[in-house]
Predict the 3D structure of the following.
Amino acid sequence: MLCHYTVPDSRVPERVLIVGGGVAGMHAALNLAALGVPTLLVEKNAHLGGMVMRLDKVYPTDHCAFCPAWSTARQCYDSPLVQVLLHTEVVSLCADGESIRADLKTHRPAVDPTLCLFCGACRDSCSRNALLDRDPAMTWDPALPPAMRIDQNRCDRCGRCVSTCPVGAINLDVGEESISVPVVDVIYATGFEEILPGDFRHAPEFGSGSHPDVFTAMEFEAWHNESRGEGVLCARSDGRPVKRVAFIQCAGARDRRHLPYCAAVCCMHAMKQARWLKRRQPELDVSLFYTDLRAPGVGQEMYMMAGAAEGVRLLRSRPGLVMAAESAGVGVRYETPENGQPVGEKFDLVVVNGGLGQCPLPGALPVENGRVITHFKCGFCDEPADVASSVIQGAATAVAVARRLRATSGGAA
């Protein structure tokens, strides 16, 4: 297994750069490796798996999301034809003769996870509790052995942890490192990012950021997913037991002010969360406001129907206002689907869903003689896609790249 901080060997021929280590990027790398093509898989975060690592389960099977993502990441690390660089971003791409020069910026963590024994000696020596063995934000890769990490906000750089570490895994002087490496092609698999509540300026009527009990979909995933093992759902604002929950779809999507497209995955994701709640607390009143129920994949329509049969109330209506109620709770104003009359209801929690934006492509697309050298994209950064579609797109993109490489090298396609 190549160390994920090792400087890439510039002598490796026909290496393909894959930008983004989510599901699409990992499967593109593994499929290229199966075809005998070496790859450099670059991920800006400290773990492979992307957003899937933040999911509890995946629809429509309700299987664990972590397990297949973990095993795929493990395969990437173990493949001799895949080199993984974590904490790394693309700065620029430019034509360099027959190849492309990729300028990268990598930031090594102060505790090298490839050396750390996770013994805790550094933590015991620190008087400021700056060494952490738990990481709720998951800034380490669960496909790798666990490692200590340093909270830079607490660290005073006294150096006691450095002298205490039995394997020399700590270096407080690490920083950014620039790497330049030649590649023959580039695949973008940068995925999506969720619009955070404070950034929801384009559609303020949905109330995001105005009340503690207004969640985005990924916030709610972390707040009350099934893996936490908690029983009664409680409000984030004051801890009171929740009785009514609303899921609001197309919050910022299909909207010319913000995201003009449908994000594709939101209806099924909301129904997954709604069914969590009904299975755990059947007495909960759970409503799902939608524009059009999108369930195009295998088994997805039956999954939707099962949710309705379990008591999830489906309302074809786009609420026009979400705001704090006069007493505890969140008010939602909408038009009834039957006659278009405006009504208002109060819910204990509201989950706004739909603000999924494609991550920008890092670096400028290299152009030589008016020709864009690379244009391959897969996963959500190409078009809104769920996990299954991203896996398929990653594999298909790998085949397309391999064919082009073979054609340019004079082989049969």
User: Anything to note?
Assistant: The radius of gyration is 24 Å. Helices lie at 23-34, 66-78, 121-125, 160-164, 217-223, 266-280, 300-309, 387-408. The first helix runs from residue 23 to 34.
